[in-house]
């Protein structure tokens, strides 16, 4: 009986650990919805246009792209695996495709 109670308590303790994953999924869904609406309103460039403009200036392989608002401005964060194996981060103005910053993400 005590063993079953211990297992149940352990499971109950682990359940909250799963909640942040759902919160991240909700955030991702919310970001995608905001991005889609902003593109439809013409406030930001679609990702395909951003990539067409900035890809020639990026060395390495793109491994992740995020969309967010930073200080009220829409940006794409593009993460790149550089040829030397370092992970690099580019912040791109989502309205103009201008590279705002570039940094080593290590």
Provide a descriptive summary of the structure in words:
With 106 residues, this protein is of the alpha+beta class. The protein has one domain: Nuclear Transport Factor 2, Chain: A. It contains two helices and four strands. The chain has a four-stranded antiparallel sheet. Strand 3 and strand 4 form a beta hairpin. The protein is globular, with a radius of gyration of 20 Å.
Q: Nutshell version of this structure?
A:
By secondary structure, this protein is of the alpha+beta class.
Low-confidence stretches: 4-15
The secondary-structure element order is HHEEEE
Instruction: Kindly report the average pLDDT value.
Output: 80
- What is the strand arrangement across the widest sheet? 1-2-3-4
Provide the domain count.
1
* Amount of helix: 40-55%
Radius of gyration: 20 Å
**The first-level CATH class name:** Alpha Beta
Q: Could you say what the CATH architecture is? A: Roll
User: How many H/I helical runs?
Assistant: 2
Beta-strand residue fraction: 25-35%
Quick one: biggest sheet? Answer: 4 strands, antiparallel
The tally of strands reads 4
Which structural class should the secondary elements be placed in?
Answer: alpha+beta
CATH topology description:
Nuclear Transport Factor 2, Chain: A
How far apart are the first and last residues' alpha carbons, in Å? 49 Å
* Global outline: globular
């Amino acid at each position: 009986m005590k063993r079953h109670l211990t297992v149940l308590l352990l499971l109950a303790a682990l359940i909250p650990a799963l909640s942040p994953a759902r919160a991240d999924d909700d955030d991702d869904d919310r970001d995608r919805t905001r991005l889609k609406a902003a593109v439809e309103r013409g406030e930001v460039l679609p990702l395909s246009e951003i990539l067409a403009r900035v890809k020639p200036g990026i060395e390495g392989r793109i491994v992740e792209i995020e969309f967010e608002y930073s200080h009220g401005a829409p940006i794409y964060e593009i993460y790149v695996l550089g040829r030397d194996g370092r992970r690099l981060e580019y912040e791109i103005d989502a309205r103009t495709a201008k590279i705002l910053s570039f940094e080593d993400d290590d």
